[in-house]
Design brief:
Helices cover 35% and strands 20% of the residues. By secondary structure, the chain is α/β, with parallel strands linked by helices. The chain has a single domain (5-233), classed as Carbamate kinase (3-Layer(aba) Sandwich), CATH 3.40.1160.10. The strands form 2 sheets. A 9-stranded mixed sheet has the order 4-3-5-2-1-6-10-11-9, sandwiched between helices. The chain has a two-stranded antiparallel sheet with strand order 7-8. The radius of gyration is 17 Å and the shape is globular.
């Protein structure tokens, strides 16, 4: 494998049907790919989003305090984390759910050394609760956890096969990039991840690979070093 330790950023929408709720076939498809890579000896952390259930900005008109809305979104990521952990166990892969938000009855608190110990034992660590703080996205959480867990790469799983110069769903002639740098992403405002996350990857020399997780086997191909999707170099 080209990478021995990875952080997979998984959106909540990837676990749902048409981006909503929880969809067992979608969960099982993703869990099977993760389990296959884990069996190859790769240390894996997975940061899950909560957009299929609730995003903080979705309740901005209902909840008057932004911090409260973001906390609701953090709880949504915990629900997704439980669903993914369950899917991984169905796939025969031992997993642990850790959260930056304390919920001792259902998950472990995120402690860096404990998380790395789980990984050394071959367990997939599912990371929920964001950073535990409002005003930070799960993209930033992924960059933070990847740096903390000394990962070789941050893998952003999406529904498209890389980064384009325009929305390929709206512009059929949009160009897909094979390689970019973090500075190019910032200068071109390509929206790969939020600015805080990109800057953190740049500062910590952490490469990013953006790829289509719904094409079966893509995760293994990326980890093996094949050219899949778009690689964003920390330069």
């Amino acid at each position: 494998m080209a990478y021995r330790s990875i952080l997979l950023k998984l959106s909540g929408e990837a676990l749902g049907q048409d981006g909503h709720g929880l969809h067992r076939p979608s969960i099982d498809q993703i869990a099977a790919q993760i389990a296959e890579v884990a069996r190859g000896g790769v240390r894996i952390g997975v940061v899950v989003g909560g957009g299929n259930i609730l995003r903080g900005r979705d309740v901005a008109d209902t909840v008057s305090v932004r911090a409260t809305a973001d906390q609701m979104g953090m709880l949504a990521t915990m629900i997704n984390g439980l669903a993914l952990m369950d899917g991984l166990e169905r796939a025969g892969c031992e997993a642990r759910l850790m959260s930056a938000v304390a919920a001792h009855q259902i998950c472990e608190p995120f402690i860096r050394r404990r998380a790395m110990r789980h990984q050394q034992k071959g367990r997939v660590v599912v990371l929920a609760g964001g950073t535990g703080n409002p005003f930070f996205t799960t993209d930033t959480t992924a960059a933070l956890r990847a740096s903390e867990l000394e990962c070789d790469v941050l893998l952003k799983a999406t529904k498209v096969d890389g980064v384009y110069d325009a929305d390929p769903r709206k512009q059929p002639d949009a160009k897909r990039f094979e390689r970019l740098t973090c500075r190019e992403v910032i200068d071109r405002n390509l929206g790969v991840m939020d600015l805080t996350a990109i800057t953190m990857c740049l500062d910590n020399k952490l490469p990013i690979v953006v790829f289509d997780v719904f094409r079966h086997g893509n995760l293994k191909r990326v980890v093996a070093g094949e050219v899949v999707g778009t690689t964003v170099l920390a330069g």
